[in-house]
Each structure stands twice: as structure tokens, then as C-alpha cells.
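Let's practice the habit of predicting before peeking. Look at the sequence and jot down your guess about where helices and strands might fall. Then scroll down.
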Amino acid sequence: QGDEESGEQATPEEGHPDRRKRAMRILGQIPQSGARPLPETPSLEDLVKIALALSPAEKELLRNVGERSLLRLTDLALLQGVSRGEVERRVERLEGYGLVTRLSLGSIDVATRHRFALAPGGTALLAAMRGETAGAFLRHGKVWDVAPDMVEARRPRLERELPHTLAVRGFFLTLLALAREKPQDYELRLWDSEGEATRVFRLGGRQHQLRPDGYGEFRVGPAVYSFFLEIDRGTIAIQTASAGRSDYRTKFRGYFAYRRLLRSLGEVCPRVFIVSEERRVAPILEAVTRLAREAGEVPIPIYVTSAAQLAARGPLGVIWRTMGHQGKLQAWG
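Done guessing? Here is the structure:
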């Protein structure tokens, strides 16, 4: 009767004594001080024990390492809004459980002593928390899984992809730093990694897919801007695709289809920010403008700049060129 008057209901553990006993047994095995690394092939019970032992801040840190691998301690501190010393203590605890690992990339990244990535235990735990297998989590989340002893073996991939990965991270971290410095003026409301930013949808009987490098929502004063980010490494042909290479016309047919989908739902298309080399800025805009004209599409809000301009003035600077205004630099905020 007391339960009925208070409106409370029995939890699954209270309703099933066997489950409660098992949960209490697992809790009793959690080390009160110090950390025990996960075994090489952790069981579900092992993962539950670790998940219950982690604080909310430590779980958030683990997710950040998983979704945004290869960040430095200073980057992780910025993400969590705490001091470098505090985030280092949290990282050391995760390392003790075998959830994260620190990588020294040597000549690939001489300016940074260590970057952080998921250890196999961290991959297993995050995958279990999402209800996925570790393999699916690595594929869908575009997660780096480079263990310290694999750096040399994967050096070609690291040398090829690390500059692009760090450019994507740097764009969002710059926005986050602005928001931390002036929270009354700016706020990074959302930062989706490549895996999270992917859009797969059907329109007109066809399946379309967008795979940007990231998606974000950033507040400037009272206005909130949503955007996709594309870091152009020069690997996509601007005019015509060649063997093994896509081109901007193919890529932006997907964006135009997505804009049509959003319009049918009464929603506004996010901006598309492209960071490239200076010599490619004007040709990219010309190619996308020509595609819109040929297809009879309403232009989507595309903003293109060079990596040099971005580094010199920041993402909120007067550095962007847009469709129809290629000769004039403007800000997007």
C-alpha cells in the first residue's frame, strides 16, 4: 500500500531476486582503490563491473576518446571543461582499467608527446554500451584502433590520414575554445564525428548517402548555425572523376538531394563548410555552382576557404567565399 501511495514501482532488480544478487555480487568485486585492467577478452560481467566503477565524468571522457581519437591532454581538458591536471588523473584511471592508451607517434607528429586512443577494453565497453559488437562500433564510428605496438606497422596510414584527422579536430576545438572563453557570446552545442555525421536516406526511390567529416551546431549571440564540415585533401577531383576517385559533382548531388529532403520536411539545410588549398577554392565553387544550374537546383549554403586563411583568422573571420559571391570574402556568423 505504501508503494501505491508513493507512486513508486519495483525495479527489475527488486522484482527478480536472482538478478539483484548477481548485481550485488558484481558490485562487491569492484576494487575500491586502484584499478584492475580488463582481461584480453572481457565477459559481459567484466564490462558491467567496469561500467559501474566509472564516474559520469570518466564515462564522458571515454566517449570523447572513442569518438574523437588522437586528441592531446589539453584538448581533452578543453572538451571536459576542467584543468589539465584533473583530466590527466581521469585518463590515468581509464588507463589503469585498460580502456584507453597513449600513443607516441614520433616523426609522424613531432610536436606532440602523446595522443590518446581507445584500448581494446575501451572499444569493447563503448560497443557494449551502444548494444553493438566491437567490430561494428569500429566501422560505424570511424574509430582509430592503433595500439602503441602497431604505430610502425600502420605508419603509412597514419602519415596519410593524421593531418586530415587533426584538421577536423582543430576546427571544432577552435570553436569550443571560443565558447569556453566567451560563453555569453558563443556555444558549441553539438560536435558530431564523421560516423555520427553520416546521413543515409531514401528520396525518389533512390538511396543517398552523405559522409561529411563532421557536423556541428554553433551559437553566435542569439543565432544558432548548423553545418557540415568537409576538409578537402585534394583527393577528390573537382570537375571529372577519374579511376578510383570521386568528384565534387558526385559528392554534392548527395547534398542537393539532402536539401530536397529537408525542404519536404519543412527544415532548413545546414551550411556546408569546405576547407581546402587556396588554388582549389574558386574551382570548387565554380563546379558546384555549375552543377546547381544544370540540375535546376536552388543553391545550398556552401562556404569555402583555404587552410591558410582559417589558420590566420579563425573560423569566424572574414575568410569564406560563397556561391554567387566568389570574389568577395565574408564571415558566416
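How did you do? The longest helix spans residues 155-181.
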